[in-house]
Each structure stands twice: as C-alpha cells, then as structure tokens.
Amino acid sequence: MDTATDILQTLALVIGAVGGVIAAVRAIVEMRRNREQAAQELRWKQTREAKKILDEMKADSGSTYAMRMLDWSGRSYPISESERVAIKQEDVHEALQNDDLRFTKKQVFIRDCFDSFLDYLEELEYDIGTRLIMFPDVEAQLEYYVRIMARHKTVYAAHMAQWDFTHALAFCERFAVWREAPGTEGAH
Fold first, then answer.
1. What is the pLDDT of residues 91-134, one digit of tens each?
2. What's the start-to-end Cα distance of the chain, in Å?
3. Which residue, among 77, 68, 87, 97, has the nearest Cα to 155 in the 3D structure?
C-alpha cells in the first residue's frame, strides 16, 4: 500500500509541477501580450497627438500663411482688414533678415506669420523630445516646407538662431535635405 501511495503522491507532485510550469508560461505570454497592447495604445496616442498638432498648425492663419509664402511666391495676403499685398520669396527673406528692427507693415505681417509657423515647429520638436509624439508622424507633412527653407538655409537658420527658435532649428536638422543644404555650418 505504501508503494501505491508513494506513486500517487509522486504523480500528484509531477502533475502539480507541470501545471505550475503551464501557469507560469501562460502568465509570461499574457504579460507580453499586455505589454504589446500597451505599446500599441501608446503609439496610437502619439499618432493622434501629432495629428492634433498638425491640424492646429493648419487651422492657425499665421502658420498657414507662412507655409503658403514658402510654397507660392507672389500670392496676395490680407496684411490688415483693408489691405492685401502680394508677397514674394524675396519679401520673406528681406523681412526675416531685417537687423535694424524697423519693419514695414508687410514685414511685420510676414514675421508674425513665420513666428507662428516656427512656434509650431518648436512645439513639435519639444514633443518629439519628450516622446509625446514621434517624428515619423509629422515628417511627411512638413518635409516639403523644410525642403523649401533648405534652399535658403542661411536666411531661415539665421532667423531661427537670432530669435531663439532653437527647437525649430533642431526640428529642421532632423531632415537630411536640411542637414545637407549648404550654409550656416556651426550656427546653432
């Protein structure tokens, strides 16, 4: 009888051990699944936050006008309630390079628009640095504008450096087209 009892006790221990191993494996698999799901949820939240900022950027008239000025030279803008003027690329460069701090009404408008645009680039870079958003979520939408600014990198980089748009400048540096553009080496 002792042999039968011993066999049953050993069998019970083996079954318990196997059950424990199975439970441990299931727990590990479940933890991995939960981690993956949490990572996917975080990534989704980052994507939504990036879209929200881009939507705000596009809804902001100053930022939108700055992007249009980059895209389309000679377009007309409302610089006051009663006055519209055509703004060319040369006007933008002149307004951003003005060092004597006396601006025409047109230059004030241009600078205000670019301040708004660069403020959004500042926010995006800060949010990327804190991992609130990820660069790939905004890269495609803004690469076009960074590419245009890179053609006149000395103008835009100098303006950003002079007026402490350091995060905006760092944001532009994320793009190869900006890094590879000539001018302003070591200006950061």
1. 999 999 977 788 999 999 999 999 999 999 999 999 999 999 99
2. 87
3. 97
